Amino acid sequence: MYNIFIDHLFESTTLGTILNICLLILCLYPITGSFLWFFGAMSYRFIKTDKEDDAWTTIPPSKQPMITIMIPAHNEEVMIEETITYLFENLNYSNYEILVMNDGSTDKTEEIIQRLQEKYPRLRTINIIKNKGKAHAFNIGMHFAKGEYILSNDADTIPEPDALMKYMNFFIHAQDMNTSAVTANMDVQNRSSLLGKSQTVEFSSIVGVIKRSQSSINDSMYAYSGANTLYKKDFLIDVGGFRQNRATEDISIAWDHQTIGAVPRFAPNIVFHMNVPETIHDLYKQRKRWAQGGTEVWLTNLKKFILHPIKRRYQMSMFLDSTLSIIWSFFFVITSFAFIFLMIWFAIHGNYERIYHAFSISFIFVSFEIVAGLLQLITALLLDHHAAKLKYVLFAPLYILFYWMVNPITVVMTFIPAMKTILGFGSGTWVSPKRKSLQNK
């Protein structure tokens, strides 16, 4: 009797129709999302007219704005010397300094910096006694920076030689004086492992397609790249700096900038190289932090968008996609557990026909997702780095299956910690990942 009632509810009533529509939207969300990112990237490439991707010129030293390259560092003895040496000896720019924020390091980071200061007069450092996190270190350094522009540069990040020159062209030639920051295009440095090659494909998809799509729609952007982004210092001060109790300061600051009317920029022609996690454990920890940071930002801005939808209309697409992504993550995890339970139940009771039908329908959806994902990835690999990474397309299936499964799981796993952060129990302290010297790559 109960089953008849439920079937009637879903088939005949308005509520049933609405529920069916919602379920269909959630089932098709990954597929439609991939197609939207594809069309957005193509719009950026062929329709958007105000981008400065290749129209850059050399700025004479006398006209170069001062840039502070800020390196927040916590126990970075393996990488810090090579990174600083590269930045001083390989960048095609004159008017800059390097400011290392030594955030409570307990290794040899401090003495390495002191030794390098004898060689490089433009190297400065501030020692923070207790580790309180990257955002805290950045906020302190922001007030000691001599430059009117601040480049956030991680200790394991190597920008291309022309990076500063290209960055400043975006600000100097920007048609919009509200440009708050320009974020660059990431390239994976450690590609020797299968996991590294897979992330090469993934970051090309995220950076190459999604950021282009976001930039083509009202210049909205979910997140800067915390590893390498050039900020205009005035806009950092306008929003009170980075939120110090957030898991991802780069996502948070991007949303804060856009809610005050500032404009973020994506620069696909500026490439920086960085290391990515090389073990499943480290990768999962990284994705948990990203997922928690994204949820924290969504929860922080939820009230603003609900109460003031007209005022926030230019960022509404960004908010709606984040909302759908979080809801879909719970939908994916819940239905996956339900699917496994039902398959076991049917197998125990010998109902193999239902198992066959369930796997057939699932296979159809997965096939559509793989096709949509491949379209997105191939587009990304063609557009990004002048198609130099097209050879990594063979690793696309691994990316599609792994990323689409890990992402919703991490969102669900970190939802409660994200809520705790919003309630005032967050912490910005960090632990530096295990590093390998660049010379060993």
UniProtKB/TrEMBL annotation:
| Alphabetized UniProt keyword annotations | Glycosyltransferase, Membrane, Transferase, Transmembrane, Transmembrane helix
Looking up InterPro entries in the UniProt record yields: Glyco_trans_2-like, Nucleotide-diphossugar_trans
Q: Where is the Glycosyltransferase 2-like domain?
A: 68-237
* Broad EC category: transferase
Q: Report the CDD domains cross-referenced here.
A: CESA_like (cd06423)
What does the record list as coiled-coil region(s)? none
Question: Key word Membrane present in the record?
Answer: yes
Superkingdom per UniProt:
Bacteria
Q: Which residues cross the membrane?
A: 18-39, 319-348, 360-383, 390-406
Q: Name one GO molecular function term.
A: dolichyl-phosphate beta-D-mannosyltransferase activity
Report the EC number(s), separated by commas if there are several: 2.4.1.83
Q: Which PANTHER family does its entry note?
A: POLY-BETA-1,6-N-ACETYL-D-GLUCOSAMINE SYNTHASE
The record's similarity note reads: Belongs to the glycosyltransferase 2 family.
Q: What is this protein called?
A: Dolichyl-phosphate beta-D-mannosyltransferase
